[in-house]
Amino acid sequence: MSSHQPQQSQSSRTTARRRQRSTRLSVAVALLVLSAVLVVGAVASGSTLLITVAAVLGVVLGAAATKITHSELADARVEAARDRAAQAQAYATLTDRRTAENMAFALDMRRKINAREEVISSLEVALADAQRQVAEQTRKVNAEARRAELAEREGREQADAVAGLERSLSSSEDRAAEAIVLVSELEAELDVLKAELASWQAAATRKRASSA
């Protein structure tokens, strides 16, 4: 609202100056016409005194009209220079504001990108740990399976040992399954974050290109 009020005030002042300029020019034209009429009338009368007086009045009126016109031209030049200066100032202000907005956008995008890159790095570390756990649990499952198979071959007298090994095998399988699920979830989350990061980087690139 405050930005519109100065514009309206400046427009009102410009309109007033144009109206005043039109009035001054009309007065100058009227003076020239009047001087011409006086000279023509004096010449038509044939009186030397009237011609002399009309000539003097014509010169005075012409000088006044010239003064008014010259003053109006000077005012018009000053007003034009003032308008150009105001436009240059407005353009400079607009350029500064757009530059500040672009810098703020770039900084915000960089902050978001850095944050996502940190999250992705941590998830990659967690994914590597989970994959190592999966490999370890898989090795344990295979070892327990081999031990259970050997114990089963030794006979019934080792049934208790076989049952214990089977329970250990089941527990290892459960942990391996949980590790596999965790790896899948981390991979899915990592893919989503990488896609979001790529989208932000593309948006930042387009913003810089449009600013250029």
Automatic annotation (TrEMBL):
UniProt keyword Membrane, yes or no: yes
Region ranges (Disordered): 1-20, 149-174
The keyword Transmembrane helix belongs to this UniProt entry's keyword annotation: yes
Transmembrane segments: 25-43, 49-68
Keywords, comma-separated and alphabetical: Membrane, Transmembrane, Transmembrane helix
Biased composition (Basic and acidic residues): 149-159
Any coiled-coil regions, as ranges: none
Segments of skewed composition (Low complexity): 1-14
Protein name: Multidomain membrane protein
Species assigned in the record: Nocardioides currus
